[in-house]
Amino acid sequence: MSTPHIQAEVGQIAETVIMPGDPLRAKMIAETFLEDPMLINEIRGMLGYTGTYNGKKVTVMGSGMGMPSIGIYSYELYTHFGVENIIRVGSTGSYVEDLVLNDVVMAECAWSESSFAKAQNGCEDDTMYPSPELNEKLQAAAEKHGKRMTTVKVHSADVFYRSPDNDYLSVVVGEQKCSVVEMESFALFHNANVTGKKAACLLTISDSFVKPGILTAEERQNSMTSMIEIALEAATA
Questions:
Q1: CA-based angle 156:158:160, to the nearest 5?
Q2: Are 57 and 126 in contact (CB under 8 A)?
């Protein structure tokens, strides 16, 4: 049945969802990679499509930016629409010199200073973990297609713009050893844990804290094909 945020009916959404943050990236993935994509959601402009890849049903749907947004969509997908697996595909900033623009990384865990998990069900853990099974499928997909992918500890942040005098990197990079930063995977992994479902996260380096260069908004929306192909291959394996 539909929810206030997702208009699809049960059966229109596949058991595995590929979830970029940007709904226009979801549209691009569906129109570029899926056969016979069907629009299954457009409430609030959060576009979702179901089609087939390698002959198997898969859904691609945006999550929006930040933990509150992906928290809503992932929870409803898990609890109302029979979704078993969500693979987040997104952009990320690099904290380290050896990860450069367009490199693909997979989250081995997500550390956060967020209160999302505590507010959701009282969980005080600051680190959330993806499904080992999904990560194994992603690793196998990358190896099958000869694509380089690095496994990293992710910083999942609530804040994009920080005060210049906030020395948070000494904790995030120095103490926690996070290699990249994004804003969603901690909440996604938590929701998967509390609903008994599976989640994973693939990211493409779009900018760096230690080296010059940044992908444009158009490049973020329309490129990142290595990450997308790995995710779709794993989703239909």
A1: 100
A2: no
Buried b (16+ CB within 10 A) or exposed e, 145-161: eeeebbebbbbbbeeee
> pTM of the prediction?
0.96
Query: What is the rounded radius of gyration, in angstroms, for the C-alpha atoms of the chain?
Result: 17
User: What is the C-alpha to C-alpha distance for residues 232 and 199, in angstroms, rounded to an integer?
Assistant: 14
Per-residue pLDDT tens digits for 67-89 = 999 999 999 999 999 999 999 99
Contacts of 79 (CB under 8 A, 6+ apart): 195
Distance CA 78, CA 61 (A): 13
State whether the Cα torsion 152-134-7-5 is positive or negative. Answer: negative
Q: pLDDT-based confidence at 224, cuts 50/70/90?
A: confident
Pick from 178, 198, 179, 180: which is nearest to 188 by CA?
198
Quick one: pLDDT at residue 41?
97
Asked about 158 being catalytic, the answer comes back as: no
Q: Which of 22, 98, 167, 207 is catalytic?
A: 207
Distance, in Å, from the CA atom of 13 to the CA atom of 86, rounded to the nearest integer, reads 12
Question: Between 225-235 and 23-33, two packed helices, what is the crossing angle to 10 degrees?
Answer: 70
